[in-house]
Amino acid sequence: MIRWMLVIFPALILISWFTPLLHKLGFGELPGDLRFKLFDREWFIPLTTTIVLSLVASLVSKLI
């Protein structure tokens, strides 16, 4: 369990650092990314962005 925490927390930190850069590149606004308002709150579900970034990570891991 500690191993997973040692992987997940740095990953979340890296994601939070790269979020503005990814937003400038257009990620988060792809067709299929859901953005809606419910209970006076704005919700964002990045389905397409998640799939694209997963494919990129998969390709990078196969090249290494």
From TrEMBL:
Membrane-spanning intervals of the chain: 43-61
Keywords from the named record: Membrane, Transmembrane, Transmembrane helix
Protein name, entry field: DUF2905 domain-containing protein
Taxon lineage: Bacteria, Pseudomonadati, Pseudomonadota, Betaproteobacteria, Burkholderiales
Organism of derivation: Noviherbaspirillum saxi
Pfam families noted in UniProt: DUF2905
Domain of life: Bacteria
